[in-house]
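Ticket #4471: structure output looks truncated?

Reporter: J.K.
Steps to reproduce: submitted the chain below (286 residues) through the standard prediction queue, then opened the result file.
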Amino acid sequence: MASPEQCAIDAPETDAQAQAPDYLGTATYSPEDNKLRFYPFARLSKEDYQRAKDAGFSWAPRQELFVAPMWTPARENLMLKWCGEVDDEDRTLMERAEDRADRFDGYSERRSQEADAVRAKVKSISDGIPFGQPILVGHHSERRARKDAQRIGDGIRKAVKLWDTSEYWERRAAAAKQHAQYKERPDVRHRRIKGIEADLRKARKNEAEAQELGQLWAAEGLDLERAKTLADRGYFSVKERGEQWGTSGRWCMDTAGTGVTPTPQGLRRQLLKCGRSSGVQRSACG
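Returned output as attached by the reporter:
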C-alpha cells in the first residue's frame, strides 16, 4: 500500500524540472542482499538527508554511501527521482564482505597492538618492584608503591579488555565472510527470488486496489452510505456523536464537540488533504 512519501515522489514534475534534471547521485540495487545503495555526489542538504533517513536509508561512513536494509517501491521511487535510474551493483556480496573483513582485521590488529603496549608498560612498572615486596606502611615509599599497584591493576584490566575487543573483531571478520558465503548458496538465492516475487505480487495487488478506491471516491453522486462502505475498505474511521463507523485504520476524523455532520464531499476533501487512504492517494497523485 502506497505511503505518503511515495505519493509525493510519484507527483508529476514540471516541464522545467523534466528538461533540466539535477540529480543528487547514483543508485544501485543488489539482488544478492536485496539492498538499495545511494552514492551522493556531494553532501546532502538537511531536508534531503532527513528525507533519506525517513525512507529508511542510513549513512555508511566507511563506504561513503547511504544504504537501505531492503528494497521497497517507495525507496526505489526516491532513488529514481534523485538519480534518474537504478543500476546494478558492480561489486559482489563477497567483495563487500572481504572489505568488511579487512576493516575488522584492521580494528583487531590495532586493539591487539594497544593491548601489547599496555602490557609492556605494566611490565616495566612491575620489573622495578622486587618479587614479594609488600607495601611498607609509614615508609616514605608507601605513596609511590600504592600508585604503582593502582597503575598495574588498571593496566592489566585495560590490556585484558583490549585483547577481548581484538578477539571480537576477529570473530566479526570471520562472520562477515561466512554470511556472504551463506547468501551465495543456491537455495538461499532461490528463497530470496521467491520472496521478491511475492513482494512484487503484493505491490501490484495494492496498486490495483488503490486505483480502484481512488476511482470510487472520485465518482460523481457519492452519498454518505457509499462513503461508509468505502471507509471500510479505505482504512479510516469517523466518530460521529460518540459512534464510530468505518475501520479503525490509519486516520480517524472525530466530529465530537464540533456539531458537524460528515458529508461525502467533506470526507473526500479531508482524505485527499491527509493522503492517508491509499485509494485517495492514488487519485490525488493522478
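Triage note (M.O.): checked the attachment and the full C-alpha cell line is present. Residues 142-183 form the longest helix (42 residues).
Status: closed, working as intended.
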